[in-house]
């Protein structure tokens, strides 16, 4: 008798998030997110322009630049950050298309660590855990501090290997 090895739940749900990310048409980053309560999948979403609006692959990225003060090795430093503002993030779409009652006590699996705006929205959504694969260094420290203060489990799947057909090269 052959014993078939099953994926663990983290790998299973992150594989689904990676597959969902393949629907994105963003040139800079494909992100997928799934909402899970217990072991039940309740919703999926990916990043992209609003429905019926030309996306980045059709109309180009709409880049916004900001400058923020950050403390690096004890020194204040001005850091330039670029973001595409044409795209609704996967986490935002997930919150738009799922019900609050389903989010209460749930976990979000997302291919990329949430940005500051998405982290704020998720922190107020009723979820209790965020699991991600790729770090997003631009907002990392303040996002992690907020999640800790809210008591939301926030963890990276460091040894995770996404399905090869789901990954694209992303720019930072």
From TrEMBL:
Keywords: Hydrolase, Metal-binding, Zinc. One of its GO terms (molecular function) is zinc ion binding. Its cofactor is Zn(2+). InterPro entries: APOBEC/CMP_deaminase_Zn-bd, CMP_dCMP_dom, Cytidine_deaminase-like, dCMP_deaminase, dCMP_deaminase-rel, Deoxycytidylate_deaminase_dom. It comes from the Bacteria. Residues 8-154 form the CMP/dCMP-type deaminase domain. The active site is at residue 91. GO terms for cellular component: cytoplasm. GO terms for biological process: pyrimidine nucleotide metabolic process. Zn(2+) binds at residues 89, 115, 118. Pfam families: dCMP_cyt_deam_1 (PF00383). Belongs to the cytidine and deoxycytidylate deaminase family. This is dCMP deaminase family protein.
